[in-house]
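sorry for the late reply, my laptop died twice this morning and i had to redo everyting from scratch. anyway the thing you sent over, i finally got around to it. pasting the sequence first so we're on the same page, its 253 residues, then the predicted structure underneath. double check i copied it right bc i was rushing
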Amino acid sequence: MTQKQPDAPNLKIQKCAHLPAMHRERRPEVAMLVCPGVTLLDILGPQTVLAPSCNIHLVWKNTHLIETDSGVVLKPALSFSECPHDLDVLLVGGCPLDIFQDAETLQFLADQGSRAKYVTSVCSGSLVLGAAGLLQGYRATSHWSMLKALRLFGATPVEARVVTDRNRVSGGGVTAGIDFGLEVLSQLLGEEIARLTQLAMEYDPAPPFDSGSPKKAGPALAQKVHDWMGPEYAERMAGALAEAAKSMNTSSS
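ok and here's the structure:
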């Protein structure tokens, strides 16, 4: 018997003075999927880039508090049924494996993705878009450890920080979300707004180590990352993706 989830507490959110808008155009409508266990930076990076210029909607099945992968708690602003009908941007970040068998969420993404001006992802969120049938015939990227799995969903994997193919925009792993956000912002409102945003954020990365990709880090360090993730997770991921690809192919045939 499924236990009824308790209602979210009636929280009083302390409001703050928001930064002024960077433009006088219509503010684009952006929906970001925030499920329990979502990779925080996949959402927070693009949200920070886009928030001064766009209307950002954090969406989930309900508006209960959720815990992200790093323990930070978020509160979705809208349920699926409350999400704007015609989005400028639909964004999915990395999610736990159970998302690939979540018919309600995949249907929501498929429906919104059929109308959104841009269908986008950061990190392994591209695999979730794939499971929703939204990447067939498109070039896309993902986290380096999962890049090849895009083929399961009819997409062409591309090893790059950000990949744009028509109205599909995908970012690489986690930190690529800021680069991704600037690219999306440029396409929505022009390069000048994107450059202004980059300067305002002082986004001028100079990491202390040059090991942010397998090619730069080398095979030994890449293997240690795989070992840290664990063979059990890799097996579960492979199984979940195979089942999701099978379901997608069945529903589309």
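The longest strand covers residues 55-60.
thats about all i looked at so far, will dig more tmrw
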